[in-house]
Amino acid sequence: MGRIRAEAAKAAQTAAQTPAAPDGTVCPSCGASAAPGVKFCPECGAPLSRQSE
Questions:
Q1: Could you say which of 4, 7, 12, 14 would form a disulfide bridge with 31 (CB–CB 3.0 to 4.6 Å)?
Q2: Is 35 helix (H, G, I), strand (E, B) or coil?
Q3: What is the per-residue burial (b if ≥16 Cβ within 10 Å, else e) of 18-41?
Q4: CA-CA distance, 5 to 45, in Å (whole number)?
């Protein structure tokens, strides 16, 4: 359990430090910015959900 909390804290810190991509796409898993239209995070590979159009 401690490892999960540590990883969540690290992800939250990364998200706070990482500026959002121009279109606002940010990985929900690691907080990295992603280019418009990509389906997976370039940092951790997590699937990126699309916003309702």
A1: 14
A2: coil
A3: eeeeeeebbbebbbbbbeeeeeeb
A4: 20
53: pLDDT strictly greater than 50: no
Q: Name the pLDDT band for 52 (thresholds 50, 70, 90).
A: very low
What is the spatial distance between Cα 10 and Cα 14, in angstroms, rounded to a whole number?
6
Give the integer Cα–Cα distance in Å for 16 and 19: 8
Q: Cα(6)–Cα(1) distance, rounded to whole angstroms?
A: 9
Q: What is the DSSP letter of 33?
A: B
Sign of the alpha-carbon torsion through 23, 24, 27, 33: positive
Please say whether the beta carbons of 27 and 47 come within 8 A. Answer: no
